[in-house]
Amino acid sequence: MSTGKTAVIIGAGPAGLTAALEFVRRSDVRPIVLEASPTLIGGISCTIRHNGNRMDIGGHRFFSKSDRVMQWWTDLMPIAGDQAGTAEEAIRYQGKERNVSVHAGASADDDLVMLVRPRKSRIYFLRSFFDYPLALNGQTIRQLGFWRMSKIGFGYLQARLFPRKDEKTLEDFLINRFGTELYLTFFKSYTEKVWGVKCNQISAEWGAQRIKGLSLRSALAHFFQKTFSRSKSSDISQKGVETSLIEKFLYPKYGPGQLWEHVADLVQKQGGELRRGWRATGLHVEGDRVISVDATDPEGRSHTLPADYVFSTMPVRELVRALDCPVPPNVQEVSDGLQYRDFVTVGLLVDRLSVTEPDGSPLKDTWIYIQEPDVLVGRLQIFNNWSPWMVSDPGKVWIGLEYFCYDTDSLWKMPDDELAKLAIGEIEKIGILNSAHIRDWHVVRVPKTYPAYFGTYSRFDEITDFFNGFQNLFLVGRNGMHKYNNQDHSMLTAMTAVDQIVSGSIDKAALWKINTEQEYHEEKK
């Protein structure tokens, strides 16, 4: 018998859609998912389509140390196998079936697969490529020079012998793990390009959140193990490896949005609702419960949706402003001071790149960190290497140039054609391509992509305490928790919240510990 209960879920990203699917699979609670975008599903894990080509916003490796998440993904999209996803297979497929629709939500079952992809990321610095993480080999020594390498070694030893004991800032965190010289060479300028503030103004929690067990020692240990190990593991779980060092990962054939479009379809087929173009505007509170959610539909009409449970993935600052109950002044102050970093991707379709692998073959990287200080571009994705099906013409190279900014910056407000011109000029300047080889471009802006670990973030526990007081309100996901989560951690927050509702035992504190306790760490000791 149906309980008649309803969960209003704000946002159709990984956390929101995971919660919705868990509800329809495991309970009588009916989810209603409100998604502000009329066309895109998956939040920043969506797939952008342009003239037959696909863009992944920020790059999404489907990999987790959580068995539950890995099983969840592969139950929905089985692994095609190590041999799948080659360029040759893509050419054969596209040549035979170019007229077949490959819209993520309408793909045939044989398209609903995960490819096993090799991980390769490098740093572009001094107009040359460096392995990421740095490899201790002759090439690296030649590129950096003996004097700089000596300073890196001395700086690391100094950090190990005399670490910064009061590790408050990201600068403290990085120097303790890599030494001053390596921090100055490969971390400082790139990180400040991403965040727009100095590393000594960013909380050390950012490092604990994003790179956890990665250090020079762990990177070197991985290098030696990889170099001298006689056996090569085919285990995709790679549980003994820090996430930044994994050798392979899963990836949906048509990009991350394909999985989330599939999840959205399943939710609707099993009785849930997905309302596209619906924006949550207000939450009505009685006592310690949220009783309903106001939303506007695509035509601008207002609706009030009664709710037994509310899951919010909307930015915390917007959530606080949406409440119709009194908000303590300190909570309002912290909320108003939260900051976000925004994100722009310029997609370029080119005949070929000007740089190649040493043997002359096309670059194998999924993304490249642009460390050069004389350009604004921060990272470059090569979408072909995520999946050959991301590009409509396998004879072309489809790349994404990524910029980090604030929505108040001139870069964010720049017209698309001017932004494309800037990106083309920068990437040509550093020798990656020749502008004469460009055939198409596309600009995508994504607001509030990165919740920032500065501003009033140091007082975020005041926000946490306040929202934990609402019995039926659950904050989940990256923006919902103002937490720089990976996709799998966002999913785990949603899964855990549904677990608690199904079991009848609510423990909000457990949600905030995900991706901080050892159980969820990317490196298990």
Helix content: 25-40%
Query: Cα distance, first to last residue?
Result: 45 Å
Order of strands across the main sheet: 8-7-16-17-18-15-19
Low-confidence stretches: 82-108, 517-525
Give an overview in words.
The chain is α/β, with parallel strands linked by helices and 525 residues long. 36% of the residues lie in helices and 22% in strands. It is built from 20 helices and 20 strands. It has helices spanning 14-26, 67-76, 87-97, 138-144, 146-161, 170-178, 180-186, 188-195, 205-210, 216-228, 256-269, 316-322, 329-337, 383-386, 410-413, 416-429, 460-468, 478-481, 487-503, 508-513, and strands at residues 6-10, 30-35, 47-50, 53-56, 79-81, 114-118, 121-125, 128-131, 248-252, 273-276, 279-286, 289-296, 302-306, 309-312, 340-350, 367-370, 379-382, 397-405, 438-451, 473-475. Strands 8-7-16-17-18-15-19 form a seven-stranded mixed sheet. A hairpin with an 8-residue loop joins strand 16 and strand 17. The chain is globular and about 70 Å long. The chain starts with 5 loop residues before the first strand and ends in a 12-residue tail after the last helix. The model is unreliable at 82-108 and 517-525 (pLDDT under 50).
Sum up the structure in keywords:
20 strands, five-stranded parallel sheet, globular, single chain, disordered C terminus, 36% helix, 525 residues, seven-stranded mixed sheet, alpha/beta
